């Protein structure tokens, strides 16, 4: 694969992983001239990424106005990129002309360019990143453009500018024309909260002293009204590395278990591997640090999560009640493969030989995938997906035979393991079951294998628990269709702070920008409380309905470090409850040195 093709492929993969929570069906302010900058010098409204690159609004160089966007290589990496979304209904079936001015300095490798990508249900419909005509060398301002007819079956549009090379490039005065008509953006009005609105918020929030799990349980008594009779409580997080989020989720879990009859806890971790954690929690088998590390993800390998496991074990020993630990993710199939083969070796020795041969091929393929950047397309996955489905379908077809010689629970658990193998492959393929859909299905499996009316707590990122349906359907949206009022979703946000993530310095501590005016977190900041709960369901008929039921910026950071990570959303569509912290600190990961 030559450099340009490989670059385009990596580029597509990265964009697939960009925040998909933005609603593309309403007009947004695009900041096409980069005149609006955040307090720390980033282009407002734009997602920026790319290890080894510095990306910032430059007030010393511009083609028009006072500012331009600059991307500069400062280390090792594939490319620097900024990304925005475009409202799909504005563009459906129209002829696009996307243009902008680019200035370069010492771009001796690669190029600087514009890019535009249109996605549909079947994958990418239109894509141009100027790989064959980008700006190179040292050049003064010059206009470049992308032109094509946008497919009318689109579901998503992403666009921006990029530097897949060395040197330095500036971008300015971007313009979008649809059927030869310039797209005029409307700058949103500055949000001003009235005294009545501030008073309403003050009267409808619940504050608490700290996130520490051992605080007075009575302080969270408001949860009884907020959760009500719901059987599912989904707990999000605004980053995968914030100590206060993890401690508060522990505290909420503790309250729900001890005071509200919740008996199952499930986390965004591989389902079969989580079985070892459950054996520790229920039976004391194994070492808690070892079983926690066995979940693979550094995100959960923290003192905060370990403290929660040890509380769960102590609670089960106390005989005051019982709480189980489950996982619902499926990204790595190795343990699922091992479990399925062990079952077949015991109960279906004839088929075991075939399954073992096919699973070895899947394992070898997965090992090769770890070496490939980017991941290959569907065509390379398909034979291995076929092997995985063969085994899964064989188990399903022979379920009655297995039930006659093994327990029903045992049979269904090992069939679920074989299903995890299928899901692990499909999650990386276009037009197949997504990771979020698989996680939702696995949660349903857990619930269906519990006693009627069992209450369950879910732990995952905000982006997974969200109920909002857009071009991308998160796990929460799938579950909401099934459980509706039986599920309460709590999202987490913060104004400023540090967090643990993977970035330019590897796994470590990173900081992010404070919330900007017009964001959900900025409104919470205005109330001057260090931490609070807000029931978003009460807002629809409140003084705040005209603000919170419209698009606002909201921060979302996953496992990778991001300096500016706000996206546009209607927060009341995503969550039932918002939990807010003014200041946050990084999660305490094992193996990291904290200064």
Q: Secondary-structure blueprint of this entry?
A:
Layout: H1 3-16, E1 47-49, E2 53-58, E3 68-73, E4 80-85, H2 88-91, E5 95-120, E6 123-128, E7 135-149, E8 154-163, E9 168-178, E10 181-182, H3 195-204, E11 205-207, H4 223-227, E12 232-235, H5 243-260, E13 264-270, H6 274-283, H7 288-293, H8 303-318, E14 324-329, H9 334-347, H10 349-369, H11 378-397, H12 399-405, H13 408-426, H14 435-448, E15 456-459, H15 462-465, H16 475-483, E16 487-503, E17 506-511, H17 520-525, E18 531-535, H18 545-548, E19 552-555, E20 566-569, H19 571-574, E21 577-584
Parallel strand pairs: 12-15, 12-16, 13-14, 13-15, 16-21
Antiparallel strand pairs: 1-4, 2-3, 3-9, 4-8, 5-6, 5-7, 5-8, 5-9, 9-10, 11-18, 16-17, 18-21, 19-20
Helix pairs in contact: 5-8, 6-8, 9-10, 9-13, 10-11, 11-13, 12-13, 14-16
Architecture overview:
- The protein starts with a helix and ends in an 11-residue tail after the last strand.
- The protein has helices spanning 3-16, 88-91, 195-204, 223-227, 243-260, 274-283, 288-293, 303-318, 334-347, 349-369, 378-397, 399-405, 408-426, 435-448, 462-465, 475-483, 520-525, 545-548, 571-574, and strands at 47-49, 53-58, 68-73, 80-85, 95-120, 123-128, 135-149, 154-163, 168-178, 181-182, 205-207, 232-235, 264-270, 324-329, 456-459, 487-503, 506-511, 531-535, 552-555, 566-569, 577-584.
- With 595 residues, it is α+β, with helices and mostly antiparallel strands.
- It folds into three domains: 3-182, Sandwich (Jelly Rolls); 195-330 and 450-514 and 535-584, EreA-like (biosynthetic domain) (EreA/ChaN-like  fold, 3-Layer(aba) Sandwich), CATH 3.40.1660.10; 336-426, Biosynthetic Protein domain (de novo design (two linked rop proteins), Up-down Bundle).
- Strands 1, 2, 3, 4, 5, 6, 7, 8, 9 and 10 form a ten-stranded antiparallel sheet that branches.
């Amino acid at each position: 694969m030559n450099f340009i093709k490989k670059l385009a492929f990596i580029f597509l993969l990265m964009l697939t992983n960009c925040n998909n929570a933005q609603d593309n069906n309403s007009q947004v302010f695009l900041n096409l001239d980069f005149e609006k900058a955040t307090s720390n010098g980033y282009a407002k409204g734009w997602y920026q990424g790319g290890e080894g690159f510095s990306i910032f609004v430059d007030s010393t160089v511009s083609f028009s106005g006072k500012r331009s966007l600059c991307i500069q290589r400062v280390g090792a990496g594939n490319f620097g990129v900024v990304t925005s979304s475009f409202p799909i209904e504005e563009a459906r079936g129209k002829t696009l002309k996307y243009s902008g001015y680019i200035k370069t300095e010492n771009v001796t490798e690669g190029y600087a360019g514009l890019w535009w990508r249109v996605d549909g249900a079947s994958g990418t419909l239109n894509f141009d990143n100027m790989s064959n005509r980008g700006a190179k060398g040292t050049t003064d301002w010059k206009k470049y453009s992308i032109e094509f007819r946008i497919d009318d079956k689109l579901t998503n549009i992403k666009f921006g500018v990029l530097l897949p090379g060395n040197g330095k490039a500036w971008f300015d005065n971007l313009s979008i024309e649809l059927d030869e008509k310039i797209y005029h953006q409307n700058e949103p009005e500055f949000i001003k909260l009235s005294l009545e609105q501030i008073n309403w918020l003050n009267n409808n929030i619940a504050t608490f002293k700290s996130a520490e799990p051992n605080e007075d349980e009575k302080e969270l008594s408001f949860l009884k009204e907020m959760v009500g009779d719901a059987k599912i409580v989904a707990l999000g997080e605004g980053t995968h590395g914030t100590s206060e989020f993890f401690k508060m989720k522990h505290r909420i879990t503790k309250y729900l278990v001890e005071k509200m009859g919740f008996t199952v806890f499930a986390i965004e971790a591989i389902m079969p591997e989580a079985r070892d954690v459950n054996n520790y929690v229920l039976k004391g088998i194994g070492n808690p640090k070892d079983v926690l590390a066995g979940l693979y993800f550094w995100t959960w390998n923290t003192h905060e999560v370990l403290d929660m496991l040890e509380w769960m074990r102590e609670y089960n020993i106390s005989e005051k009640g019982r709480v189980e630990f489950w996982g619902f993710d499926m990204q790595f199939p190795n343990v699922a493969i091992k479990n399925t083969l062990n079952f077949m070796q015991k109960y279906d020795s004839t088929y075991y030989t075939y399954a073992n041969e096919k699973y070895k091929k899947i394992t070898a393929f997965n090992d090769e995938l770890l070496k490939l950047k980017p991941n290959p397309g569907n065509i390379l996955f398909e034979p291995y997906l076929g092997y995985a489905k063969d085994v899964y379908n064989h188990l399903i077809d022979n379920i009655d035979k297995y039930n006659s010689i093994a327990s029903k629970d045992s049979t269904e658990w090992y069939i679920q393991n074989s299903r995890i193998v299928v899901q692990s492959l499909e999650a990386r393929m276009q037009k197949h079951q997504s990771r979020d859909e698989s996680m939702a299905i696995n949660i349903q499996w857990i619930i269906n294998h519990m006693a009627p009316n069992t209450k369950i707590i879910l732990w995952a990122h905000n982006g997974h628990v969200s109920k909002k349906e857009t071009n991308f359907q998160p796990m929460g949206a799938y579950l909401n269709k099934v459980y509706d009022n039986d599920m309460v979703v709590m999202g987490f946000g913060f104004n400023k702070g540090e967090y643990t993530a993977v970035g330019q310095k590897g796994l470590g501590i990173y900081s992010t920008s404070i919330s900007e005016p017009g964001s959900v977190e900025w409104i919470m900041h205005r109330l001057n409380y260090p931490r609070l709960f807000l029931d978003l369901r009460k807002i629809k008929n409140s003084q705040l309905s005209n603000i919170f039921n419209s698009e606002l910026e909201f921060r979302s950071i996953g496992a990778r470090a991001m300096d500016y990570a706000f996206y546009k959303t209607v927060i009341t569509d995503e969550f039932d409850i918002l939990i807010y912290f003014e200041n946050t600190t990084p999660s305490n990961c094992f193996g990291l040195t904290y200064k």
